[in-house]
Amino acid sequence: MNSDDLNKAIELIDSSHSVLITTHNRLDGDACGCVIVMNDVLCALGKKVKPILPSPVPQWYEFLFAEKLPILGKDVSLQQLKNSQFGSFDLIVIVDTNSHSQLGDFDQYLKQVNIPVLVIDHHVTADGLGDIEIVDPTAAATGLIIFDLLKHAGWTITEKMAEALFVAVATDTGWFQFNNTDSRAYRVCAELIDAGVKLTQIYDELYQNFSYSRFRLMVAMLNNLQLHFDGQYAVQYILLEDFEKTGASYEDTENLINECHRIGTVKVSALFIELKDGLIKCSLRSRGAIDVCQIAAKFGGGGHKMAAGVHLPGPLNNAKRLIFEQVRQQLLGISAG
Hints:
This protein is α/β, with parallel strands linked by helices. The protein is built from twelve helices and eleven strands.
């Protein structure tokens, strides 16, 4: 990412009148924060803006939203989107992803329209969705890139926008505990705090706000914990029956994978989630020695070196076997090195 990229993005935004904003499936804090900020800044610029989400907002991020945003497939059908019943647009903004596989049904709409696309993202995995792309894999969160865009353009950052950007950065760094936390993240968050962000209030909303069903789901996951390779590889799984027993939803699984990293020996972890379509969602985390993005990419997934994900064919034991072998190879490589 450089000044030319930012200038091209600003020119594209300036020339637009009606903008559609979306992000990746299974929303996280970075995605939510970025959608809110881009919506607010474009509205302030006098644009006609419509966000549409590919999946529901997790309960612990709802405090960020002044109103509920439409969900594709629930509030707006794919056919309505394709037929311009949701609106006609001259710009699409996609934040926090650059991958077809993460857009859900929105990808079908994207492939049929001939509308300029602006992508703002920080992931290594990229399908080149944008006509203009602001991509910086060194950024701990897409929120940091959007912060740079706003500052470069001279657009006002309101207190509400500062809160959304702070959540974007704080969640993608694990509340500043992950290895991607750098001085850039701290410097930006310091400015956001000066703009009115209330740290304690946000922390409580994000991390002290479990529903009882989500807490029970976490307990079920921890009861399935297995350690391999002298405790270096942690495996956890959640079955369809666990969702039924606890009353929890798929969105309730966000960040649960991080719980096993409290174990000092764990270098890499995998959380396997059984889905209704027979696929297995696998989330991967690393403390840095193992490149989990490389593992996910072998099966069509992606992400970052220390956080990645992929959908695998079932049954569960098959998915576990595929990842086990890849982790084994990387650990053997580390030992040999």
